[in-house]
Design goal:
Residues 140-239 form the Copper amine oxidase N3-terminal domain. Helix content is 10%, strand content 36%. By secondary structure, the protein is mainly beta.
């Protein structure tokens, strides 16, 4: 942590007197709202003006500088929030979380600050990690500046390999404007604490370049803040390791190197592109629009700022830059069922024969997956009828950046009734038919973290069920094909290996069921074999439910310890807001947040404020059908929050959407009584606006 001295103390004393009251919107949900562009600018301006911090702009300059990396909302403490929401207490002080890279000092480090009050900040204080652990400078997330310097260093270092690369791929690094090479970087960046050496996968820069590895992988050491001291340590080309660029170049010059010559990429219908190619055998039309979602009588949900209401549901939401969607104060019919439900981490662990593949263990909070929320396409990513919302992030930038249409809200016909019954008279007629259409409200955003696209959904059903779901799509993380690589995946194209990997997604579920004092119980189902009480000599074999408090079974065991458990339940602590951090990716060996410490303190979890930590995931063995992209069917996971004897009956009986049909002349059933509480016909179902898309995200 940055060392606090006299200037810090003076800053706190001098600024405390100047703090003023903030003008907040009246809606209570706004205490959880993301920072506005004005608030982001105010925080940045306040910190940049503090002489004791010595901050420089994010863009340009050296790596060894003090810079502001991230600003986002610091949510209020739960006790203060509940006092305000439930008991009319004071509105919690609105504050920002600021992440500062202190690189221009003798012991560089990363420090987090709480800055407030907003909208006019006047003071700050340190935000320590649990146990007071410091974050070393080498554990910082990558920045745009470091990537620019990394590219420059790579181009200079690989200059002797330009003849090899041009001959093998037709592309190069030197003096490049077209037919260029690029790279993807792998993490973690080393094999132990203190390292910052990254394997770089060299690729041809064409559409879908993730599927165009050139056969060359380079290990570059970039720990030193001075790029002039960076160096290439190892290389891997077409299945062979080399100790230096010179060794590889000389091997090629002698003609002793088996070249991996790549075919010329076509100008059209490249295999990694979305351009249509081929025809379906049925001949049914695909050049016309398919089925669409419509709202014939208008929207049945209410969206006010960051408050969302639908049927019995009410909640507040935000899209935090660090880790994505976060719900607060989730209620049904006015009663809170969860204080917080949020994405914590998305991780992917790979296997492979090449060094980059075997080193890949992505932990996407370290890539700020919440700030990778690019524009959603109307009619593709979300229905045309959806309500779209912008997001603003201040991440590795000198001002807030607007991400248009980063979230969407829409009501979705599920295509299956929520419930239905046909009551047969077993004589060719019926006593009644009743059904309730299946609908859900969807809150959605996406994270495009390098090659992969995650689609994040929260679905609200009228029967009090909440579903959390994530779809994985985008480009597979692929490496250059060698025969030895077949042990670790599938050959999905001529020079391409789709590497086997496991996806794990971690969620925080702070349930408040009938209050904050909850207990955790499991129900075991087992067979029992008993004497039949009404037939002597007979036996009955049936299920028996047993409630207990057994710990969940362990699952996979990656370096991120939250992934060991499908479900873990702990006491809630303000010092344990998240199970991961933006620093775990580059320091998985000794991260500042260790989930294992949450569950090893031997605390009671009976009648306490509890948090359920949920891990879902799947194994992905890539195949040819993952070209050009992994498809969403079969690649989605999630979980449900379902009421269990919480209501006296299914709460969806309050819906006015059921249909009931009764015969007036049974058993003939020639005259029917049809009851419904909605208009008999939904009316026209067409969205008149043409498709539009912008795709930009710019500083505002």
């Amino acid at each position: 942590m940055w060392q606090l001295g006299l200037p810090w103390a003076l800053a706190l004393l001098l600024t405390a007197a100047s703090s003023g009251a903030s003008a907040e919107p009246a809606d209570p949900a706004s205490i959880f709202a993301d920072l506005s562009p004005a608030e982001l600018r105010a925080v940045r301006a306040f910190l940049m003006e503090r002489p004791e911090l010595g901050l420089s702009p994010s863009r340009g300059g050296p790596l060894a500088k003090n810079s502001l990396f991230l600003v986002e909302l610091l949510p209020p403490k739960k006790r203060s929030a509940l006092r305000f929401l439930e008991h009319g207490g004071a509105r919690p002080r609105r504050e920002a979380r600021a992440v500062i890279f202190f690189g221009a000092q003798a012991e560089p480090n990363i420090t987090e600050l709480a800055v407030g009050p907003l909208p006019r900040p006047s003071s700050y204080r340190p935000l320590p990690f649990k146990g007071g652990r410091a974050v070393p400078f080498w554990a910082r997330p990558m920045t745009r500046l470091e990537y620019e310097l990394l590219h420059e260093a790579l181009v200079a270092a690989l200059a002797p390999l330009e003849p090899l690369l041009r001959e093998a791929t037709g592309f190069g690094f030197q003096n490049c404007s077209e037919r260029c090479l690029t790279f993807s970087d792998i993490a973690p960046r080393g094999l132990g604490p203190g390292e910052r050496r990254t394997w770089l996968v060299i690729q041809r820069f064409v559409e879908g370049f993730f599927l165009h590895p050139a056969g060359l992988e380079v290990l570059l050491d970039h720990r030193d803040p001075d790029p002039r001291r960076w160096a290439v340590l190892r290389l891997w080309y077409n299945g062979r390791y080399f100790g230096s660029v010179r060794e590889l170049a000389e091997s090629h010059a002698r003609g002793a190197l088996p070249l991996a010559r790549l075919p010329e990429p076509p100008a059209r219908q490249l295999f990694s592109s979305y351009e249509p190619r081929g025809r379906f055998s049925s001949g049914t039309p695909t050049e016309v629009h398919g089925a669409k979602v419509c709202e014939p009588q208008g929207r049945r949900y209410r969206l006010r700022g960051n408050r969302l209401e639908y049927g019995g549901w009410s909640l507040a939401f935000r899209l935090r830059s660090s880790a994505g969607l976060q719900l607060f104060d989730v209620r049904f019919d006015g009663e809170r069922v969860a204080y917080e439900l949020s994405v914590q981490e998305a991780i992917a662990f790979y296997g492979g024969h090449s060094p980059a593949a075997m080193q890949t263990k992505y932990m996407d909070a370290g890539w700020a997956m919440g700030a990778s929320s690019y524009e959603l396409a109307r009619g593709v990513d979300c229905p045309e009828t959806a309500a779209f919302l912008d997001a603003h992030h201040l991440l590795d930038a000198d001002g807030p950046v607007r991400f248009p249409r980063a979230l969407c809200v829409f009501e979705l016909p599920t295509g299956v009734p929520l419930r239905r019954h046909f009551d047969s008279d077993f004589q060719g007629g019926f006593h009644f038919y009743a059904g309730l259409e299946g609908r859900a409200l969807v809150l959605r955003t996406t994270s495009t973290v390098y090659n992969y696209d995650y689609i994040w959904d929260f679905l609200l059903y009228p029967n009090g069920v909440l579903e959390t779901k994530v779809h994985a799509t985008g480009y597979i993380h692929a490496t250059f094909y060698t025969p030895e690589g077949r042990r670790y995946g599938s050959r999905v194209h001529s020079h391409l290996l789709g590497n086997i990997h496991t996806h794990l997604v971690h969620y925080k579920v702070d349930l408040d069921v009938a209050g904050s004092g909850n207990s955790f119980e499991t129900m075991d189902i087992r067979f029992e074999n008993i004497s039949n009480p009404w037939s002597a000599g007979a036996r009955v074999v049936q299920d028996q439910g047993r409630v207990g408090q057994e710990p969940p079974a362990p699952g996979l065991t990656p370096p991120l310890t939250c992934g060991r458990y499908h479900l873990a339940v702990t006491r809630r602590h303000e010092s344990e807001p998240s199970s991961s951090s933006i620093y775990t990716q580059n320091n998985p060996w000794d991260p500042p947040v260790t989930f294992e410490s949450f569950i090893r303190d031997n605390e009671t979890i009976e009648d306490q404020d509890l948090v359920a930590w949920v891990t879902v995931g799947f194994l992905h063995v890539p195949h040819a059908e993952d070209i050009p992209n992994t498809a969403t069917p079969g690649n989605a996971v999630g979980f449900f929050l379902r009421p269990f004897n919480f209501f006296s009956e299914d709460p969806s009986v309050a819906s006015r959407a059921p249909v009931i049909v009764r015969p007036l002349d049974p058993p003939a059933c020639s005259r029917l009584q049809i009851q419904r509480w909605t208009p008999a016909s939904p009316g026209p179902c067409v969205h008149p606006e043409p498709f539009t898309y912008n795709g930009t995200y710019r500083q505002v």
